[in-house]
Structure formats: structure tokens, C-alpha cells
Amino acid sequence: MNGVERTTPVTDETMAALGVELARMRNWQLWLLDMTPNEQWPDLSTGMPEHFAATLIEHLKWLEQLEADDALVLSGPIDLDTGLGPGLSIIRASTREQVEAMSSSEPFARAGYRTNAIRSWTVNEGSLNVRVRLMANKIVV
């Protein structure tokens, strides 16, 4: 950039400019709960086993409770075009331990169908607009 060598030490002026930019960041701590099917996940193309269906109901109730507790930001299946299986939830919590407790209580993980991984996510930039149309029962993000 601008003829500066990659190994040139940073100047005080650049550090001050960097400090200004970093101070503008939102620094909103969230957590990603990556839920990945494992070898126990059934082949749903041949039908849904009863135990799996019951676990799915528990999973949906689990998500509903997280939402009621104001811990769930967003959640849903990923790669749905390849079939039901992986999911991703964005969680609001103060500590990793809180998210670990949520993750260990997730019904598909408890039943052995999925393996959950937790990743911290610091949101710094972007925008989010939400419009709620009450009469149309429609939410546009």
C-alpha cells in the first residue's frame, strides 16, 4: 500500500488512526452453535423414525425456550438443499460456559444424532433492518 514495505514498523500516526477505527466497532459478543449430524443421523429419504421425530419435536421446543429466555438471536438449518441435518444458531450469552450448557441440553446432541461445536463471534460491523407488518403477519429482515 502506497509504496510501504510490508516489514516497515507501524508509525504512531497509523496506530492512532487504527485506534479511532477500532473504537467505532460494535464489539458485540455472540456465540455460534454449529450443529453437525454424525453417523447416527438417519437416512431420512426412506422415512422418519419415530424416535427421531420425537427428538425433532424436543429440539423445536428447546429452540422456543431459548427464544423465550432471550438467548436465541437467529437459528435454522444450513445447506437445506442437501437435506435436513446441519443447523446453526446464533446465541446471546455472557460466557462460553452458558453456551456449553445450552449445547449439551440440545436434544439432537443428547440423543447422539449431532455433534455441536461452539465458536465465539465478535460482531463489529454491518447493519440490520427489521420491518414488521402486523396485519400481514410478515417480518422482513
Task: Give your account of this protein's structure.
This protein has a four-stranded antiparallel β-sheet with strand order 2-3-1-4. A two-stranded antiparallel ribbon has the order 5-6. The longest helix has 19 residues, at 50-68. The chain is 31% helix and 26% strand. The mean pLDDT is 89. It has 141 residues and is of the alpha+beta class. A hairpin with a 4-residue loop joins strand 5 and strand 6 (138-140). The protein is elongated.
Percent strand equals: 25-35%
Strands across the major sheet, in which order? 2-3-1-4
Mean pLDDT: 89
Over the alpha carbons, how many angstroms does the gyration radius reach? 21 Å
Q: Which shape, going by the Cα principal axes?
A: elongated
Low-confidence regions: none
Number of strands: 6
- How many helices in DSSP terms? 4
Distance between the termini: 37 Å
Helix-strand makeup class = alpha+beta
User: How many strands, which pairing sense, and closed or not: the largest β-sheet?
Assistant: 4 strands, antiparallel
Question: Strand-and-helix sequence, N→C?
Answer: HEHEEHHEEE
Helix content class? 25-40%
